[in-house]
Design a protein that fits this description.
This protein has 171 residues and is α+β, with helices and mostly antiparallel strands. The protein has helices spanning 2-24, 149-154, and strands at 39-41, 62-72, 77-82, 97-100, 106-112, 127-131, 139-147, 167-170. It has a single domain, classed as Sandwich (Immunoglobulin-like). The termini are far apart.
């Protein structure tokens, strides 16, 4: 019986030694990642902003909107920039852009924020800064177009007034 007790005590001591050793053995696992800033445009390649038919005798200021949709990495500051358009306006139009018609016909218009502030200038330096909400949420920049009554009254009758403005996202 004594031998059995010694063996049993030896086994218990050996088990206790390994248990203590395993309980005190530790290591750290450092887990890291980098999330990159990036954006994807959700809007189609061509966004339309039709002003429709404008009658100089009865028209007031005409305002229309178009939405530019995108999503980016959460918290990314994004500048939504609008170019001057294909028909860069003369300095006399100030912040106006110009749609070209047949021959030399032109129709001035403005692009604004929904608050009515100019969006872009002749030098194409004004932009709208937004903070992205994240990949699962689509961010929308609403672009407001305005043709004033005076712009319509100064334009020649024409059915082909047209301009293309480049929209750029800058991180």
């Amino acid at each position: 019986m004594m031998k059995m007790n010694r063996k049993l005590l030896g086994a218990v001591a050996l088990f206790a030694m390994f248990s203590a050793f395993e309980a005190n053995a530790q290591s750290n696992l450092n887990v890291t990642a980098t999330v990159l800033e990036g954006c994807v445009i959700d809007s189609p390649a061509i966004i339309n902003m039709p002003f429709g038919s404008l009658d100089p005798a009865t028209v007031a200021d005409t305002v229309v909107t178009a939405d530019f949709d995108f999503h980016c990495t959460a918290g990314t500051t994004v500048d939504v920039e609008l170019g001057t358009g294909n028909n860069a306006p003369p300095a006399t139009y100030l912040a106006n852009r110009v749609m070209a018609g047949a021959g030399t016909n032109t129709l001035a218009y403005r692009l604004e924020t929904t608050g009515g502030l100019d969006w872009g200038t002749l030098a194409d330096t004004a932009s709208v800064a937004m903070t992205a909400q994240g990949w699962s949420i689509v961010d929308t920049a609403t672009i407001q177009g305005r043709i004033t009554q005076l712009n319509v009254q100064a334009a020649a009758a024409d059915t082909t007034y047209f301009d293309t403005v480049l929209i750029t996202l800058t991180l």
